[in-house]
Amino acid sequence: MDSLNPSLSASDPKAALMKQVQQEAAINNARQLISKMNSHCFEKCIPTPGSSLSSREEKCFTTCMEKYMAAWNTVSRQYIGRIQKTAGGGAGSGGDMGEFGI
């Protein structure tokens, strides 16, 4: 996976394209994470939707989202680590989803 080497992207159009595809995939993953997190936490914490959230519902929803994001970041770091190890320990393309505030 030469596309993990940042020095190639400046001189190699194929590497630049691969980097762009990786960035778009990361954005898509972040969107899916937010969608799944909202769906899961909403179902878990808000049994009867109304015009506003109770403090209990709000706390449950916030806690659920924080746990979901922490788990996502842990899995993401492990996955990126394995990819880097397989690619010969090259530099990653952003690490965990930190660039999305996740």
> How helical, in percent, are the residues?
55-70%
Low-confidence stretches: 92-97
| First-to-last CA distance | 25 Å
Q: Strand pairing plus helix content: what structural class? A: mainly alpha
Largest sheet: none
H/E element order: HHH
What's the β-strand tally? 0
Shape: elongated
Radius of gyration: 18 Å
Mean pLDDT score, rounded? 80
Number of alpha- plus pi-helical segments: 3
Tell me the fraction of residues in β-strands, as a range: under 5%
Main location: mitochondrion
Membrane topology: Peripheral membrane protein
InterPro entries: Tim10-like, Tim10-like_dom_sf
GO molecular function, one term: metal ion binding
What does this molecule look like?
The chain is 70% helix and 0% strand. The protein is built from three helices and no strands. Helix 2 runs antiparallel to helix 3. The relative contact order is 0.16. About 6% of the residues have low confidence. This is Mitochondrial import inner membrane translocase subunit. It holds the Pfam family zf-Tim10_DDP.
Salient structural properties:
3 helices; elongated; mainly alpha; 0% strand; 102 residues
Write the layout of secondary structure elements.
Layout: H1 6-11, H2 13-45, H3 55-86
Helix pairs in contact: 2-3
Task: Give a concise summary.
This protein has 102 residues and is mainly alpha-helical.
